[in-house]
Fold this protein.
Amino acid sequence: MFKKFLNWFDGGYDREFYKKHQNDIQQNNSRVLGIGLITIAIFLSSFLVVELTTGIIQIHVNAFAIMLGLTIIMFAIHTLLTKNKYIATLVLMSIFVASFSTFLIFEETYYMPNKNAVIFYVFMLALPILIIAPPYAILNYNILSFAALAIMSYIFKEKSLFIKDLMFGLCCIVAGIFLGRHSLINTFDGYSLRDKLEYQSRYDPLTNIYNRRAGRKRLEEVMVNEDKIAIAMIDIDDFKLYNDTYGHVKGDEVLRTLSSIFLYHARKHGFFVSRFGGEEFLFVTYGYDVEIIRSILDECAKDMKLAHIEDKNSQYGTVTFSAGYTITNSCKDIEKLVEIADEALYLAKDNGKNQIIFKKIDKE
């Protein structure tokens, strides 16, 4: 039962999902903490000014002054630590929330035992909701803070007030859990939507491999870090005729099958493939084993043959592809590399199709 409750409380929380967005989450926490520290400093300063000038609030001036000083110090530390590292802000946030919450409970139960300290408990529950933390941490925080409130209230208050604090506190915990779960669901839904939009901008919807724009961007990144690069241009043989004969639905199945073959081998060897055009693909290898591209293309051709997609218009009886590739040790001109690979592809087409042709770069 308790496990089911925790799963419900998670609000769709997933450790891998959280880890994927950890940097964004930490940056968001950092911003929230910075704003929160400034807001609390203004809050404390205002109370001190009003108390010192009028004396009508009846707060403990020394305690508020100490907390204001701690807030300013923590904001200074926060500013220094969050220039490059955001993980420190999570530790700082935990310390600050715990100390500030304890202070508020102490202020309202010890110095003003006849006032309802649980008002500040609402504030303690609201703080974790404003940040994105693992839900279990929020639940633990809520339970511990409620325990602190109950103990302080029991020690310093009359029994009737203690019972009121207890009931009000339990109501706040329930409300906090529901609000926290709702906040987490909305937040993670926002990240999920962003992931989907990012996926749609990078991947071809039909084949689920890089689209042309993402493939080029990936190639640009590779060219920055690698000198030895091989590029292959691949084209399905007589694909227009296949579509005219068997229909576009069957044509889409061919594209998906060939893409899955390319993607399998690209992932297996640690390289990448993208859809370049209608039935054209760009396959890239790089690093010390750049010349493996030929064997990978041969493996893809064998798998395509095993798939045995019938094509009565083909002299081979099945759907085939042609490929042209080139290898460079220093060229950083993407257009030139693609052009040479494309020329090799046309040579493969002219030589009877179902061919893999290499073309050397004359001058690098």
